[in-house]
Amino acid sequence: MASIPTDRSPDSSLALLREGYRFIGARCDRHGSDIFQTRLLLRRTICLRGRDAATLFYDADRFARAGAMPLRVQRTLTGRGGVQGLDDAAHRERKAMLMSLMTPTAIRHLGQLFDDEWAARLSRWEQAGTVVLYPELGRMLTRAVCAWAGVPLAGAQVDRRTADLRAMIGGGAAVGPGHWRGLLARRRGERWLAELVDRTRRGALPAPIGSALRVIAEHRDEQGRVLPRRIAAVELLNLLRPTVAIDRFIVFAALALHDHPTWRHRVRDDDTATESLVQEVRRYYPFFPAAAARVRRSFDWRGYHFPQGRRVLLDLYGTNHHPALWPEPERFRPERFDGHRPNPFGLIPQGGGDHATGHRCAGEWITIELMKRAVTNLTSRMRYDVPPQDLAVSLRRMPALPPSGFVVTGVRRTA
Ligand code: HEM
User: Is the C-beta atom of 242 inside 6 A of ligand 1?
Assistant: First the structure.
């Protein structure tokens, strides 16, 4: 049995925070291997990268999710008791509930709500002179997804709820104040939504039939029990929080259109080109660095031993930039997707494998739809100037974003 290449450092947690998205890839390059072992948060951890590794990682007979995610991430980003940490029948049943909300009609509805938000803000942007896209998008997405989910949201609450949803996203990787903000935000967010679940169950809040709030509040498991109110809140947050996080991908799309202006013309009235651009944005720009699982029971793979209980990280960013999968991986080339359906274990910014049976992101189709609508709005419905600003995307900062938040000036409506 070959031994897995191993990092010498007693613990690499600080190196992970320092190096960010390149942490796993840089070590794979150094070891000349798509598998190596290290210690993270004092636990031995096997790190994997590449399509074959992703295929292995999403084999649910070999890996489980319960207890895989570090506690600090559960307490901020994902919450505790939600679908991410479930396995087997419990996972399938909860995931089916979430995927039942992802019908083409429901996704179009959310897309339309987002378009309406965009149209409403555009008039203000025309008068504003200078607009920072990132905070604007966060508020627009919060309003759109709450309306879609049947969650009432007064105008005065928008900024605070948006800030909380964002603090949960940033809180997992942050240390100190950023982490504490994430903890507080999660506590407030769960309390807010648990209260709405209670009111929906009592009939005091008429959430529309088929809305996420109604479906989650009334969902019954195989034993006929409703979800505990806090868990129902966690699952609602699993829809609201990541939808707001699409603001980062949209900022990256705006950046891509700025850096590659020929694509502004190519995507106009061309759904296929828009889709290729959106896929390349999701491949190229950094978002979630890795997914985590735990070995269910010992097995061997390609001559390497995976002991029971060992934590395993799959490098999402590194797989999306793997030279064996992507010719010229560090070049932004949307045409690589023209006429190609991405391999389910190759393009994995939102996880790999199957949406219904595995842990692949429940909101991937929503993400693609909202990004496409944003690209259409940016290219066909408005013009703007991009003044000098700091647009450098650091791979060391997780989650990544250009420091300026993408400033535009001289916005004018074109359609
Ligand atoms: C902003 C863009 C998004 C990114 C980068 C993203 C990324 C991810 C990743 C990496 C996973 C984990 C995959 C794994 O553990 O193997 C995941 C899971 C999940 N995502 Fe997303 N996501 C995004 C948007 C969304 C949206 C819009 C929703 C819902 C409306 C959503 C809901 C979920 C849920 C419920 C899970 C857990 C699935 C499960 O464990 O079965 N995500 N996402």
Answer: yes
